[in-house]
Amino acid sequence: MDLIADIDRKLDALATQSLTRRLRVADSPCAPRQVVDGRAMLAFCSNDYLSLAAHPAVIAALQEGAARYGAGSGASHLVSGHSRAHALLETRFGEWLAPHIDQARALYLCTGYMANLAVLTALGADADAMIFSEALNHASLIDGARLAKAGVAVYPHGDVAALERQLAASTAATRIVVTDSVFSMDGDLAPLPALLALCERLGAWLVVDDAHGFGVLGEHGRGALEHFGLRSPNLVYIGTLGKAAGVGGAFVAAHASVIELLVQRARPYIYTTAAPPALAHALQASLDIIGGDEGVQRRAHLAALVEHLQDALRLQRWQLLPSRTAIQPVIIGSNEDALRVAAGLHEQSLWVPAIRPPTVAPGTARLRVTLSAAHTHDDVALLARALNELERATA
Questions:
Q1: Taking the chain (395 residues) in consecutive chunks of 10 residues, what is each chunk's mean pLDDT?
Q2: Residue spans of alpha helices (H) in the chain
Q3: pTM above 0.90, yes or no
Q4: Catalytic residue among 77, 243, 255, 308
Q5: Which of 1, 82, 122, 350 is most open to solvent, judged by the fewest CB atoms within 10 Å of its CB?
């Protein structure tokens, strides 16, 4: 009982700080209009930016994949779980990233979290390596750096000059710079061209986690590398497939030698059952949409919604961060105030999450508004009006 009492004290401490998280149950497919805990809601909280999670073509491909390959893979990739569906998907990702990475090859993993762990623990497997991690990196990158045998240095958000000083002073045999492309809580972009130029000049790897850029950025939706027009053998690119691609898993694209190193050394890849091949099959349909005319139209509509929201909000005390991506954070301040505003929106059947520490810094609790290509301009106008009114009402 003392063990349980200790856990209860920890839970009470979270509640006292307004840091308790709550699970909500969705009773319908991922979409702007969902039934959540039995109630109809207009959701602004999904990372399904292109609204492909419930796209008929993707659903049909998933059904076809299950009929062809079954429900599960049965083993890890290196035992017997690597299906033709996985192999075809990896080939396609290698082709997609070939304009940006020399001798590009790709590897498909179960989740973005596992992909980040795999890359950093494999590249940073030796004690004479050093990882230089962006201050606002995702938790999976932070954990990957912690699990690696390499040393870790953190550089300030977006500060290329500070990173240059750290890299220049380092005597590590292998130096690895790692950054998000689109920062998930602020919505801004990393200065990837400057980071890559620095890494090339000083002989470092640049690992880019494009979780929130793949499918959305670039003319053909191929992500941050296409958006910035980058190409280099120094790049290691991670694309998450449960967000804009609408399905699940992630891929790593890099020089073929880097990918072979992951196959041989990356424990999160070697020691887990492969993702169901039906998911890999469904992702082919997602890529057809992302890279085709429909993807172009969806990205254009999403950009118009972002502009609409920014024009419609008339905030005086709360702060809308200057993001041009589908992530539109509204800084509220205290944990308690952020929860109250989220509750006020919920009363109007608007689902927007309140994000609090440790996900963001203390005193910067926020609403993380995310837009989808399936939202309408009327949806955005409704949200903006509700936020404007709530700010005035809580003055």
A1: 91 94 93 95 97 98 98 97 98 97 97 98 96 98 98 98 98 97 97 98 98 98 98 98 98 98 97 98 98 98 98 96 96 96 97 95 96 98 97 87
A2: 2-16, 56-69, 84-97, 112-123, 139-147, 160-169, 192-202, 224-228, 256-265, 267-270, 277-291, 293-312, 335-347, 377-393
A3: yes
A4: 243
A5: 1
